[in-house]
Write a structure and sequence with these properties.
Blueprint (H helix, E strand, L loop, with lengths): L2 H8 L9 H6 L5 H8 L1 H9 L10 E4 L7 E4 L2 E2 L1 H14 L3 E6 L5 E5 H17 L7 E5 L4 H13 L2 E4 L6 H11 L3 E5 L1 E4 L2 E4 L1 H9 L6 E5 L13 E3 H4 L12 E2 L3 E7 L7 E6 L1 H14 L8 E4 L6 H13 L3 E5 L10 H9 L3 E4 L1 H10 L2 H4 L8 E5 L5 H11 L6 E4 L33 E4 L11 E6 L9 E2 L3 H9 L6 E9 L5 E6 L3 E4 L2 E4 H9 L4 E11 L3 E10 L9 H12 L8 E4 L13 H8 L15 H8 L8
Parallel strand pairs: 4-17, 6-7, 6-8, 7-14, 8-11, 11-12, 16-17, 16-18, 18-19, 19-20, 29-30
Antiparallel strand pairs: 1-2, 3-13, 4-5, 9-10, 14-15, 15-23, 21-22, 22-24, 24-25, 26-27, 28-29
Helix pairs in contact: 3-4, 5-6, 5-7, 5-12, 6-7, 8-9, 11-12, 14-16
Bound molecules: 5'-O-[(S)-butoxy(hydroxy)phosphoryl]adenosine.
């Protein structure tokens, strides 16, 4: 963020205090902060007690092997039982778990009893295929209920799932399968998006063919499109799962049993397999979902618009809401299909009361105009949430006014794939909300902002966001790479978790998140590493060298801009940028396609050979260039900046 934008942000001093009406019914209380401060571990134990344990824990936290933590030691628990069976057992089997809305307009209503039957059938199916506790299963699915069923079936039998976002390429899927030695893939023929069917099976076929560990590919029929069929691997969901018994006796697993691996980008070219385990993760997902979203399972209709391929989908579509017995909406497609009011139509249709989405979506709607939300009755909405990147006060205010009827709290929730659940957020009904601020750490969470020297800074100052105490939903490691885990998160400020985000306390002690401080970009709330895109670019035979930066973008937060030096013999021409952009899509996925590729003759380097990304960002953001005196060749930048105005070459 530019200094100017930051200065503007920090002058934001509107505070929307909780209304008496909201406060009177809120799940959260002001005392929770005091209780957690007085005895943090007991506070977390109280939250864990809201779950059903097959065997109680003997110790709340074992931190003796830090930074690897063990929570609710010796406890035994089954995540799927907590998300499904116990609600049925409590007499709520008829409550709707999922209102599914397909993009073409097909719908399904799945009650907790239906969900229980499906999860049990899928669990039986997995066991029939020889899956046992401790195995890893890749899930590559569109946003259909079977994605959630597949995750819960894995949890039920103790196999860790590794959900790979459906927008990732065959190569991204393959490398994740390899890293985790996954035994099986659960997928579908395809899904519906932007008015047509997209295919998933071909990417799965390609990945499976190159993955010796894969023994089975389980395929849900969603679109009915033609698929290639490999008799030795492939099996239809309907032929395996729907033929199973709807009863399955679940076993409690150790609290630290792996629940899932989710890959996220780091500062190197290799994504990190973030490992989450069962008891602590589920405790935090359920607790945060209950207090931050103020969920009332009997009356609320909750809708999180994320994809299950990201952590938000894991914690706030699958585990948090279902652990709390909530009713939720799940939508398959894009917000503008078949028209730009599709989301608001869905809100009205199901009477959505709580909506959780990303700033990039909010800014897109803002651009489309007020007339679309105005076409529908949104008065059911009583709480709004935002996640994924800093939300600018203007978008925050638009969200509140155009969607929230100017009277709903907005929870701006800061967290990460690594944290497992929300860490910093207003507590609706208790704390006020400031447009653009995530306010403060939740009860049970300890955060600080440190300067370079590791000293905590005070109000009015900024630095690096650090989490100073372990929390139950914290990652337990990077799959297969303990050293990288220690190095990435625990070495910058010894013994404390370095989040990689810049942050600032305002004069009132509210936290403002300022974006990443490392070489990680945030595009539409998705984390993409500059190095990963650079590696994808240089893997093309035409490319000699590449430097990638995240340039601020009005809608997506950041956009990817790549500066590329071609190999001698390869000539720049009208088609080159497209070839390279498509190559990145093939290597990583369409989400990583650069917004703009500039072919340059040189890159700005220091005398020691380090690329000065700061200068490239200045160019990409059309700013006056910063100090160039440390460059080996200061004239390089003139050449580069002359080319930038050719504009985006997005197709
Ligand atoms: C990074 C984590 C957490 C689910 C979605 C992204 C940024 C996330 C906020 C927020 C400012 C935010 C941070 C963080 N971020 N939420 N409310 N305000 N920044 O998960 O892919 O693991 O990315 O997203 O930079 O480090 P992720």
């Amino acid at each position: 963020m530019s200094d100017e934008a930051l200065a503007n942000l920090m002058t934001e001093n509107r505070v929307f205090a909780p209304t008496a009406e909201f406060a009177a019914q809120a799940n959260a209380t002001a005392e929770m902060y005091d209780v957690a401060r007085a005895d943090r571990l007991q506070f977390w134990a109280d939250q864990a007690s809201n779950l059903q344990w097959e065997q109680p824990w003997s110790e709340i936290l074992d931190w003796s092997d830090a930074p690897v933590s063990r929570w609710f030691v010796d406890g035994k628990i089954n995540a799927a039982v907590n998300c499904v069976d116990r609600h049925v057992a409590a007499g709520n089997g008829d409550r709707v778990a999922i209102h599914f809305e397909g993009e073409p307009g097909d719908t399904r209503t799945i009650t907790y009893k239906d969900l229980q039957e499906l999860v049990c059938q899928a669990a039986n199916g997995l066991e029939e295929l020889g899956i046992t506790a401790g195995d890893r299963i890749a899930i590559y699915m569109p946003m259909i209920p079977e994605a959630v069923v597949a995750m819960l079936a894995c949890a039920r039998v103790g196999a860790a799932h590794s959900v790979v976002f459906g927008g990732f390429s065959a190569e991204a899927l393959r490398s994740r399968i390899e890293d985790a030695s996954a035994k099986m893939i659960i997928t579908s023929d395809g899904g519906f998006r932007r008015g047509s069917a997209f295919a998933l099976k071909p990417a799965v076929d390609e990945a499976a063919a190159a993955s010796p560990t894969i023994e089975h590919v389980l395929v849900v029929k969603r679109t009915g499109q033609d698929v290639d069929w490999n008799e030795s691997l492939d099996i239809w969901w309907d032929d395996l799962v729907l033929k199973q018994s709807t009863a399955h006796v679940a076993q409690g697993f150790d609290s630290e049993h792996p629940l899932f691996i989710l890959y996220t980008s780091g500062t190197t070219g290799k994504p990190k397999g973030i490992l989450h385990t069962t008891g602590g993760y589920l405790t935090q997902a359920a607790y945060t979902h209950r207090v931050v979203f103020d969920i009332k399972p009997e009356s609320d209709v909750y809708w999180c618009t994320a994809d299950v391929g990201w952590i938000t989908g894991h914690s706030y579509i699958t585990y948090g809401p279902l652990a709390n017995g909530a009713t939720q909406v799940m939508y398959e497609g894009t917000p503008d299909t078949p028209h730009k009011a599709r989301w608001w139509e869905i809100v009205e249709k199901y009477g959505v009361t709580i909506l959780y989405t990303a700033p990039t979506a909010i800014r897109t709607f803002m651009k489309w105009g007020d007339e679309f939300p105005a076409q529908h009755d949104l008065s059911s909405i009583r709480l709004l949430g935002s996640v994924g990147e800093p939300i600018n006060p203007e978008a925050w205010m638009w969200y509140r006014e155009a969607i929230g009827g100017n009277n709903t709290p907005i929870v701006d929730t800061w967290w990460q794939t690594e944290t497992g659940g929300i860490m910093i957020s207003p507590l609706p009904g208790v704390t006020g909300c400031k447009p653009g601020s995530a306010m403060g750490p939740l009860p049970g969470i300890n955060a600080e902002i440190f300067d370079d020297a590791g000293q905590a800074v005070g109000n009015g100052s900024g630095g690096y966001l650090v989490l100073t105490e372990p929390w139950p939903g914290m990652l337990r490691g990077i799959w297969g790479d303990l050293e990288r885990f220690k190095e990435t998160y625990w070495s910058r400020f010894s013994g404390m978790y370095f989040a990689g985000d810049g942050a600032k306390w305002d004069e009132d002690g509210a936290i403002w998140l300022l974006g990443r401080v490392d070489d990680v970009m945030n595009v539409s709330g998705h984390r993409i590493s500059t190095t990963e895109v650079e590696s994808a670019l240089v893997s093309h035979p035409m490319v000699a060298e590449a430097a990638v930066v995240g340039a601020s973008d009005e809608t997506t937060g950041q956009g990817i801009v790549a500066f590329v030096i071609l190999r001698s013999g390869s000539e720049d021409g009208p088609g080159v940028a497209k070839i390279l952009r498509d190559h990145v899509a093939k290597e990583i996925g369409a989400i990583a396609k650069p917004r703009q590729i500039m072919i340059v003759a040189e890159l700005p380097k220091t005398r020691s050979g380090k690329i000065m990304r700061r200068l490239l960002r200045d160019v990409a953001e059309h700013r006056t260039m910063g100090d160039v005196t440390t460059l080996a060749d200061p004239t390089v930048m003139n050449l580069i900046s002359q080319g930038i105005d050719s504009g985006p070459n997005e197709d």
